[in-house]
Design goal:
about 400 residues; Rossmann fold; 6-stranded parallel sheet; 14 helices; about 35% helix; globular; Glycosyltransferase_grp1; glycosyltransferase activity; transferase
């Protein structure tokens, strides 16, 4: 039991005032932004007061009440600059982050600060909150390898830059009372790359009720990928795999998302002779995304740097079989032979074999994969995630929720 005589402990009946510091937030489209949005909305719906601090999405900056995920709350949009090597990224000037943080903290006077990265906004928030004696919780969604190709650094300097990025993460996260990341494997990875210990594995969570599974047989073979159309997602591996499939399967591929690799991948699809079968949708609305997932045959995720993969979780909530790279956190979601199959990262031939296996499955076996996805996603319910973060915000000890479970409910 927590020591409620400790003045740092917030009674579990008191509403909280939470300041969430983000380097990316909607309208940005990525896992970290989506999680921060769902977290803020979920806390508001539980009666807490939430303010989000994030880079302005345009030149318009200031504090605005915004609607996200069915909830309204203030978002402090800090003056930002466009990072042109990336297709949409905007950032707060690093040497201004502490000044922004000091002003916002003194205005909001939060009970707790929850940073979503150590990069710019998180760095300033952690240091200024620590100086004021305000509890800081951090969630790491960051993989330097995912950002490095959007820099202008020559390749021979990139490994050095990655080491420096992890060292910087160590310094910022050392100021935090608790550090979390979405999966146990990601937590172990973060501990290995930094001096941190005791990193919590807390799923980003998902509201499965928002998705509509369809267990009916499909009239066509349609594979879907959802995510940023960027190099670290290895979409080229998926295109090469689809190109090698038996033409009799008449496979259609939906690439849902936008990014800097769109033109190159369209050209690759043309070169491979499958351009007419590949639909590059660009960014779509939530409703369009859910509709695409409902009607797909299976979901493919070739990325090798996923700390959790919300897109894969959305596909599971839509009742889809999954074929994913056997890398980072994806094996936590894809249980080989239960709700899909894992393939050797970067191996388009192995990916093609696993895709073919699903596409040629008898309906009764395919149905088992779909039902397994629906069962396995139950452990990632967003309400469990909110419960755990509320406890961390109040200074209580927590036991990480078990999310990597087998179909019989036992931890794997």
């Amino acid at each position: 039991m927590p020591d409620t005589s400790d003045p740092a402990h917030i009674p579990d009946t008191a509403p909280l005032k939470v300041l969430i510091g983000c380097d990316t937030f909607p309208p940005d489209v990525n896992g970290a932004a989506n999680f921060a949005s769902r977290l803020a909305a979920g806390l508001v719906q539980r009666g807490h007061e939430v303010v989000v601090a994030a880079p302005a999405a345009s030149r318009r900056h200031g504090r605005f009440v915004e609607d996200h995920e069915g909830a309204s709350f203030p978002v402090e949009r800090m003056y930002s600059w466009r990072w042109y090597p990336h297709d949409w990224l905007r950032f707060v000037l690093p040497w201004r982050s502490r000044a922004h943080a000091a002003r916002i903290l003194d205005e909001v006077k939060p009970d707790v600060v929850h940073i979503q990265s150590h990069i710019v906004v998180g760095r300033g928030m952690a240091r200024e909150a620590h100086k004021r004696g305000i509890r800081v919780i951090a969630t790491n969604h960051f993989m330097p390898e995912n950002m490095i190709e959007h820099t202008l650094l020559p390749k021979f300097l990139r490994q050095t830059a990655i080491r420096l990025a992890w060292r910087d993460a160590s310094r910022t996260f050392a100021l935090c009372e608790a550090v979390t990341t979405p999966t146990r494997k990601a937590a172990a990875f973060l501990e290995a790359e930094t001096e941190l210990r005791g990193v919590h594995a807390i799923s980003c969570g998902i509201d499965a009720s928002l998705y509509t599974p369809s267990l009916e047989p499909r009239s066509e073979n349609r594979i879907v990928f959802v995510g940023r159309v960027t190099g670290e997602k290895h979409i080229d591996v998926l295109l090469r795999a689809v190109a090698s499939l038996d033409a009799k399967l008449d496979v259609k591929l939906d690439i849902v998302g936008g990014g800097d690799q769109m033109n190159q991948l369209k050209q690759l699809a043309t070169t491979l002779g499958i351009r007419s079968n590949v639909n590059f949708t660009g960014y779509v609305s939530d409703e369009e995304l859910r509709g695409t997932l409902t009607h797909a045959t299976l979901f493919a995720m070739p990325s090798i740097a996923e700390l959790q993969s919300i897109a894969t979780m959305e596909a599971m909530a839509s009742g889809l079989p999954i074929v994913a790279a056997d890398a980072m956190a994806l094996p936590h979601l894809v249980h080989n032979g239960e709700n899909g199959f894992l393939f050797t990262p970067g191996d388009s031939a192995d990916l093609a074999e696993k895709l073919t296996k699903v596409l040629r499955m008898p309906q009764d076996e395919l149905l088992k994969l779909k039902q397994a996805s629906l069962k396995l996603i139950e452990a990632h319910d967003i309400q469990r995630t909110l419960n755990t973060f509320e406890s961390l915000y109040r200074g209580e000890a927590v036991t990480d929720p078990v999310t990597d479970v087998s179909l019989d409910g036992s931890a794997s």
